[in-house]
Design brief:
This protein has 237 residues and is of the alpha+beta class. It is 38% helix and 15% strand. The chain has a single domain, classed as Glutaredoxin (3-Layer(aba) Sandwich). It has eight helices and nine strands. Helix 2 crosses helix 8. The relative contact order is 0.20.
């Protein structure tokens, strides 16, 4: 399954991104992969589905975010009364998600209290072998009150998401690593990640990253100005 292919992504952002560009966030170098077909397909339930935009269910205007944002379970950054909510289905190992990571950060800065950001997991396990464990570690971090710290660590070290490095990131942000190790060995958060994937499937997600604005699929360019314009329009509806 597909969202925006690597070729489409670079075309949409050709004015601001180049092939070997470096992404800087808070003076931190984000490790990203060069253009490839990594995010151009998703193998789901042992069935490979290639991109066909005519069959992309997320582009159907009738498709809504399912289920809606739940303040008791979702990972939310921003005020509950914000007039606009941006939801991302992401994969911590997806290169395109790594490129849009600083975009989301800039949007949060620009929009301030007018926007809340929600992150849901959608690991493409057949093409990104570390994405599932990375998502589970993020959920374990959430249980220790450190989701956003781990979210940043994972996207800032995208190319080093093996289990040893995941444990290092947990230690760096002050997690109880013994508790984390126990959680991972017992697959405590596997079901939680699976629930997000099921939510994505019900919402028409076919690749990563996929965004929704106030519950409606966003089909525009993945650059800051375009996304901010869409968010600002949503605040006026």
């Amino acid at each position: 399954m597909l969202c925006c292919t690597r070729i489409d992504f670079w075309h949409k952002n050709s004015s601001s991104l180049t092939y070997y560009s470096f992404i800087i966030v808070s003076h931190t170098h984000i490790e990203t992969s060069p253009p490839s077909n990594q995010c151009d397909k998703r193998i789901h339930k042992k069935e490979m589905i290639y991109n066909d935009m005519s069959n992309n269910s997320a582009t159907d205007n009738n498709v809504q975010l399912t289920p809606p944002v739940d303040e008791k379970r979702d990972h939310i950054h921003g005020p509950a009364n914000a007039p606009v909510t941006l939801v991302e289905f992401g994969d911590f190992e997806c290169p395109d998600c790594g490129i849009t990571y600083p975009t989301v950060g800039k949007l949060m800065e620009r929009m301030g209290d007018k926007m809340r950001f929600v992150y849901r997991y959608y690991p493409l396990v057949e093409v990104h072998p570390h994405a599932e464990h990375a998502a589970e570690v993020a959920e374990a971090a959430a249980a220790q009150g450190k989701f956003w710290e781990m979210y940043n660590e994972l996207y800032q070290h995208q190319r080093q998401l093996d289990d040893d490095h995941l444990m290092q990131y947990a230690q760096a942000i002050g997690m109880d690593t013994q508790r984390l190790d126990n959680d991972m060995q017992n697959a405590v958060y596997t079901k939680r990640v699976e629930d997000d994937v099921a939510s994505g499937d019900k919402s028409g997600v076919e690749g990563t990253p996929t965004f929704y604005i106030n519950g409606v699929y966003y089909d525009g360019a993945y650059n800051v100005d375009a996304m901010q314009e869409a968010l600002e329009q949503a605040t006026r509806k």
